[in-house]
Every structure is written in structure tokens, then in C-alpha cells.
Design brief:
Length: 68
């Protein structure tokens, strides 16, 4: 994983800013879908505690994605 980070960090100095941001957001989306999927229930519970009431699932999903 660290090697992957160094490759991406190196490419970020070569690529134009908009391209680098696009790639970064897509990688974050991929990690959200694959690696952090099992942690969503924890995030949802934390959001419920933060807002003090139940919020719709679609809103939780949007907020969880923005957290990552």
C-alpha cells in the first residue's frame, strides 16, 4: 500500500491538477466501495449520534462518502 502511495504521489507532480484530482477521487471511491464497506455501520451509527435523530439512509450514504 505504501508503494502505491509513493507512485500516486510521484504522478501528482507530473499530471495536471484536474487530472490528478479526478484520479484521486476515483481511487477514493474505489476504496470506499471495497475496503471500507464493512465500516459503514459504524459511520452510520456515528452520524445518528451526531445528528441526534435518525436521518434517511440516502443522506447517510452521501455523508459517509464525503467523509472519505
Amino acid at each position: 500500500m505504501i508503494l502505491f502511495y509513493w507512485v500516486i504521489a510521484g504522478l501528482s507532480h507530473i499530471l495536471p491538477r484536474n487530472v490528478a484530482l479526478f484520479i484521486t477521487y476515483r481511487i477514493a471511491d474505489l476504496m470506499y466501495i471495497t475496503l471500507y464497506r464493512h465500516r459503514l455501520l459504524i459511520v452510520y451509527k456515528n452520524l445518528d449520534m451526531l445528528y441526534g435523530f435518525k436521518i434517511p439512509l440516502w443522506r447517510k450514504k452521501r455523508l459517509a462518502l464525503r467523509i472519505w
